[in-house]
Amino acid sequence: MLFHSKAALRWSWAVFALLAALFFGLPLVILVVASLARQWNGVYASRLGFSNLLEALSGHRGMALLTSLATASVATLCSTALGTWGALASRNMSGWFRSIMDAVYIMPITLPSVTVGLAVLVTFSRPPLLLNGTPYLVIMSHVILITAYTYNCIRAGLARLPEAYEQVAASLGGSRAYILLRVTLPMLRPYIAAAASLSFAYSMGELGATIMVYPPGWVTAPVDICALTDRGSIFTGAAMSVLLLGATVFALVILNRLGRRGSRHGAPY
What we know:
Helix content is 77%, strand content 0%. It has helices at 6-36, 51-57, 59-90, 95-110, 113-123, 135-160, 163-171, 176-205, 210-213, 221-230, 234-265. Helix 3 (59-90) runs antiparallel to helix 8 and helix 10 (221-230) runs antiparallel to helix 11.
């Protein structure tokens, strides 16, 4: 035990609660209050209301939130498929090939996201793959950045799977496709849901690569928030941030429920 007395344990929890409230809770509370304020000249905000949130939901600002949701959804689906495929493929690889596969998948998140965005922009701004000025470039940048999370989550899940289920299915004459679709993937469902959650959350807040490649007609919420705060519209930017946070949390709750359902019903019996 790290703490040998109940008093020391209580003090450690008190310090943890204080630090969590100071560095995590307080900024969120201030952000929510700023999203409701129309004026903040003194210690307390004044003229509280929902006008900032309504403004953030209307017009092109509401479209920016929908753009973020669409980008994150498509990028999460693509990254989940690619990361799961890579993890399954590397499962039976030898040491060197597995190391190469790990490097390919993990390298993008070791680089600054703005570097990834610039690399994608330069690569696909010339024929024969001319994608500059299209939403595909934004989605591609997100997929490159978030696939590593799927790959690592599925790799961790595969390491914990009991091989007995797959061996029994193979001994009963099940084909590789049958074992994959009816045994392996159902047992991986909680890990796939966790991977999708991480990927979706990262994609919803991604800014560095997006700001390098986004076209005028495909502005995501983080880009719009950055533009608002740069122009001094702090309250509207706070409202956009609260809506972005709410949409992300709502999607993560749904994915978490899917993962829990898979943990209860995913294992074959």
